[in-house]
Amino acid sequence: MAVVWNGLLVLGLVLGFCLVSSLGELELFAESPKGDGSLAFLVVGDWGRRGNYNQTEVAHQMGIIGEKLDIDFVVSTGDNFYEDGLTGVDDPAFQESFVNIYTHPGLQKQWYSVLGNHDYRGDVEAQLSPILRKMDSRWLCLRSFIVNAEIVELFFVDTTPFVDKYFTKPKGDVYDWSGVLPRKRYLSNLLRDVDLALRESRAKWKIVVGHHTIKSAGHHKNTDELGAQFLPIIQANNVDLYINGHDHCLERIETSDSPIQFLTSGGGSKSWRGDVSWPNPKELKFYYDGQGFMTVQVTEAEIDVVFYDIEGRVLHQWSTAKPLFSII
Ligand SMILES: *[C@@H]1O[C@H](CO)[C@@H](O)[C@H](O)[C@H]1NC(C)=O
């Protein structure tokens, strides 16, 4: 279990009081690399369907691969509970879609989860509640927060409030915006906090995790609001990977105008949408329309990303390296 710190307190103590007011609300959690200097985690998204749509099969393979890689934690890219999040802390979906599904010994690690748009259609506070963490100590879901694992720092960002149409054209859906309104202030505080945290980061690798796509060839395509408001911040701060769910697929996009890898891991259950297009096929390095998950292995020198299907077959692999002793 990660040691929970209040980012405000720790950084405030280390860097002096002047920063405290601008650091905002991002809670900080600590992880450490293993003795050999490496760290590994799984990424799954868009999963909670009581085991249906191959959720159980994906969970089983995550367990096998998780055990093999001796993972340190699991990342969930959101849409944790379908169709409409949790109704409350006593919603049986928490047991039926999480506790009773990810039972493999290889998955008994800390989970770090963000909220997806479907989670916002339920009781948001329930998913964030310490009561769920008491029911299953693996569970941790917050709106936006940071996991500092020394060689790599992960910035989890609440992307749903960025998307205009949930506010202007909610159709029949009811969103729980308590804690978000007034929206403009929520978003500007969030952008400022993430920008500052990224700038202050001394980690060799920076990874940003959100539910919504920035770039995706799948059904939902790019999220224009994130492209306009959020992408410039992660680009300016040398982020290495942006990891999302939302599109129910596995994919990697690499564009010539940015060193950031855009990785989608949203294959935790229902998928096979059959809806793929990207203007420049050279940039779409990998796209799989079915279920599966992703692994990330990190050392100071290298990052390795692997995508797996529900049989545990490797679908795609990508690596990058940085010189060991660079001046940051
Ligand atoms: C489950 O996975 C198999 C293998 O990828 C696929 O053929 C099948 O359509 C999937 N089932 C569902 C309901 O998505």
UniProtKB/TrEMBL annotation:
Keyword Ribonucleoprotein among UniProt keywords: no
Entry keyword set: Glycoprotein, Hydrolase, Iron, Metal-binding, Secreted, Signal, Zinc
Cross-referenced SUPFAM superfamilies: Metallo-dependent phosphatases (SSF56300)
Recorded superkingdom: Eukaryota
Residues annotated as binding Fe cation 1: 46, 79, 82, 248
Record's cofactor remark: Binds 2 iron ions per subunit.
InterPro entries noted in UniProt: Acid_PPase (IPR024927), Calcineurin-like_PHP (IPR004843), Metallo-depent_PP-like (IPR029052), Metallophosphoesterase_PAP (IPR051558)
Signal peptide: 1-24
Top EC class, one word: hydrolase
Enzyme nomenclature, EC number: 3.1.3.2
Pfam families in the cross-refs: Metallophos
GO molecular function: acid phosphatase activity; metal ion binding
Residue ranges of domain Calcineurin-like phosphoesterase in the record: 41-249
Cellular compartments annotated: Secreted
Entry binding sites for Fe cation 2: 79, 117, 211, 246
GO cellular component entries: extracellular region
Essential cofactor(s): Fe cation
Catalyzed reactions: a phosphate monoester + H2O = an alcohol + phosphate
Family designation: Belongs to the metallophosphoesterase superfamily. Purple acid phosphatase family.
Protein name: Purple acid phosphatase
Organism: Eucalyptus grandis
